[in-house]
Amino acid sequence: MAAQPRLLLTEARDTSFQRSPLAFSDANVLQGGRLYAQHCASCHGAAADGRGPLAASLPVWPSVLGAALFDNRLEGELYWRVAQGGQAPASRDAHGLHAALRPDEIWQVLDYLRLHAYGTSGGAGMPAIPAPVVALTCRDGRANRLTGLRGLPVRVVAQAAGAPDEPQDPRLLTVALTRGRAGATDADCVAADPAAWEAYALAAGVPPDNLAGAQFLLDRRGWLRARLLPHAAPAWTSADDVCGPGGRMEAGNARGLGDILLAMDRAPIAMTDLRRN
Questions:
Q1: What is the pLDDT of residue 92?
Q2: 3-state class percentages of the chain: helix first, strand second, coil last, to nearest 5
């Protein structure tokens, strides 16, 4: 996906074109959430809506850290703004994050916010984001990490306790999130770590206890392309980067899944995701 002109016609910083060296994994994203709660939420709000308990006491109202932020700023520029606290010395004093957070921790916070924004917006008005990388156990031993399934379309299913398995579909591989539960499942692979469940709850924009039944579609390169939320069934909703009316697509479960799989192959994400292995 080519950068928008408005992202390039701005003042460059030392880090403007840098990208995170960290894997976009469940562990890193969740650690970013913990760091955000500790260092940022009091001003920017627990929901990243700019309405933290200290917001009204600041000289400048805190930013909303949602989809528009990632659509209008390069990844490296966001890193610079967090590390330096903005452009003015006063705002640096207000943040203090250039001393409080290590470089890898800043990247973790940004990846948490990116996944949180996707969960809130469903990908509307956002650049593409990768699916959180999780540990797997596959029945044929083909992979032990989600990145090992690259080259094939993947469906990630949050499997509710006691619920029947999602019917297998020959068009894709199925990964079942089980939140620590052991036991037989008909899925091609299982992600049992509770951290995997929590990361995909962020991607769904719901509390972990409400994730059961949610599904996500990943394209052959590991990008998040569509989701089906429990309260929205049976409609798949695509993100902006899947072809469809106005760049998005909503359709019933059976036919919609096929349409979105075709759309993903017709319109692949051009950007190479080199750093999230």
A1: 42
A2: 40, 15, 50
DSSP for 159-212 reads PPTTPPPPPP-TTSEEEEE-TT--S---SSEEE--HHHHHHHHHHHTS-GGG-T
DSSP state at residue 149: G
Tally of CA atoms within 13 A in the half-sphere of 254 that contains its CB: 1
Q: Which residues of the chain have pLDDT under 50?
A: 1-2, 7-8, 87-94
Place of tokens 């921790």: 105
Of 268, 247, 266, whose CA–CA distance to 258 is shortest?
Answer: 266
Helix-then-strand count for the chain, H and E = 10, 8
pLDDT of residue 98: 54
Please report the pLDDT score of residue 82 as a whole number: 85
Distances (CA, A) of 48 to 31, 90, 93, 239: 16, 22, 20, 20
- The two structure tokens encoding residue 59: 């000289």
Bridge partners, 156 (sequence order): 175, 216
How many whole angstroms separate alpha carbon 30 and alpha carbon 21?
Answer: 16
**What one-character DSSP code corresponds to residue 223?**
B
Instruction: Say which residue the tokens 């390069």 belong to.
Output: 74
DSSP H helices, the chain, are: 5-8, 26-39, 41-44, 67-72, 75-84, 89-95, 97-100, 103-121, 194-204, 253-266
Residue 163: predicted pLDDT: 78
Question: What pLDDT digit, counting tens, does each position of 146-189 carry?
Answer: 999 999 999 999 998 877 777 888 999 999 999 988 767 889 99
Which two tokens mark 130? 């990768």
